[in-house]
Write a structure and sequence with these properties.
The structure is a homodimer of 221-residue chains. By secondary structure, the first copy, chain A, is an alpha/beta fold. Helix content of chain A is 42%, strand content 18%. Chain A has one domain: P-loop containing nucleotide triphosphate hydrolases (Rossmann fold, 3-Layer(aba) Sandwich).
Amino acid sequence: MRIAVVEKILSANDQLAAQNRSWLDKARVFSLNFMASPGAGKTSLIEQTVSRLTEKLRLGVIDGDIATSFDAERAQAAGAIAAQINTGGDCHLDAVMLQEALVEFPLADIDLLIVENVGNLICPANFRLGTHKSVLIASVPEGDDKPYKYPGTYRGIDILVINKIDLLPYVKFDMARFQRGVEALNPGVKTFALSCQTGEGMDAWIEWLVHSQQQYLKTEF
Amino acid sequence: MRIAVVEKILSANDQLAAQNRSWLDKARVFSLNFMASPGAGKTSLIEQTVSRLTEKLRLGVIDGDIATSFDAERAQAAGAIAAQINTGGDCHLDAVMLQEALVEFPLADIDLLIVENVGNLICPANFRLGTHKSVLIASVPEGDDKPYKYPGTYRGIDILVINKIDLLPYVKFDMARFQRGVEALNPGVKTFALSCQTGEGMDAWIEWLVHSQQQYLKTEF
């Protein structure tokens, strides 16, 4: 009985996720789902990404949080068209919440949409939103054991960003151990190591984004 | 209908939490529920606490994680009697899971039990376990906006530990802003600022623990 209910909810979510994807594709908006622990640097990466892409691409950001509109305000201040979803306690975004935000969002005015999920390394991975790529932002001070301890999230992602590499000299973080864990779960996953504070590694990330958006536009729908 | 189901689940959880509490009180075991984001330093604080208390108190640790027994192994290596709960995907511990662990745990052989919840700043706060005190471990690199963005967890705790203060010189963290957020949600909450790496601030935390356990033993049950 209980399993049946879970399946029904997931399937309804997946149907709405497919609808979200079709809306995004109709508007030719390439879209990313940013997932991470609280404080790993999702919003900082969005700020840096928006300010570096502002001449090249028109950016939209939809932020998910339990409370406050701090993150959307930061994205807007950096130059994006931004909206905030307050989940009111829910620990993840789902396709329904994203759809409610997309209905009001000026998709015709943007090229790239970043959806910032709720800060949580577990539940967001269980709910498809309809975005094109899932991006996990890990951060150095979280520790090198995280892939082993949160396998579901690491397994399901398309892109891994290792943030806060400027803190490597000050914390215990064995990059080889971290990467072995990632490799076991998600072999060959595209990875960027960077610092939103110093800017180190940002160029490769921005290049990848611009290239991926161009490739996306060449897709037949 | 949906609300009725939620109420029923919470109430069943609370009943089991009360039972857990009565088992702990019968064994005269003072108990803490450690909650935090992934990588805030729950396990490091447990290691440091166990190794500093080993002469004074007999410690037990029950670790909750989605996968691996890394944390219980670390607690055991530090000198505690340890058990691991693998939630198999669940993003929090609940009273049922703790009860299953308590059934097998040698409560007669310990004075203090630390339950390490799953790394998650949202859901664990919604499930009482039956422990005597809830402790939130925040960490400096997570950022000073966390009380504002995760009010439910900050509101419900008895003790706040601010970990990784050794990283204050290297990250943007406005302690006054952080503490204003805490104060608005949980006025006067007992707070410790410390570093598990350098040991700074650990003495006050250990003193509080020893004192609180002694006070607990004086309680009439």
